[in-house]
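no rush on this but wanted to send it before i forget. theres a chain ive been looking at and ive put its sequence and its fold in token form underneath. i want to understand how the tokens follow from the sequence so walk me through it. thanks a lot i owe you, the record is right below:
>
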Amino acid sequence: MKTAEIHTKKGVMKIEFFEKDAPITVKNFIELAEHNFYDGLTFHRVIPNFVVQGGCPNGTGAGGPGYQINCELDGENQYHDRGVLSMAHAGRNTGGSQFFICHNRQNTQHLDRNHTVFGKVVEGLDVIDMIQAGDVMEKVVITEN
């Protein structure tokens, strides 16, 4: 099973993936990370008590990897909660590289089955609360467990 670590100056967030529920999305994130796509990108959008969002190559929220992937919304783990990783998109089936991490369940439950949940922060949850707009993902490391 592969996991990921998102390294920032505020700390490291360790991610476990939901491969059973979102295999295409997990594969996409891992492949981008293994090609250093996320290294040096910012969390361009931070909304307190909602989400931190990153993965835009131009730092504006309008960029992506040059392709789009389909949403995967039917799995068992398609519920947004604290620490959940989910794909950002500009409409159904338009995700690419941008993702967000949820601050809590209360303010994100309306996203359930609208955005693909593909993993969860299992260590470093406190880092989510410290991230501010413009903070950099120094590197995203994929590990085999």
In short: The mean pLDDT is 97. The chain is about 10% helix and 30% strand. The domain at 2-144 is CATH 2.40.100.10 (Cyclophilin). Helices lie at 23-34, 125-130.
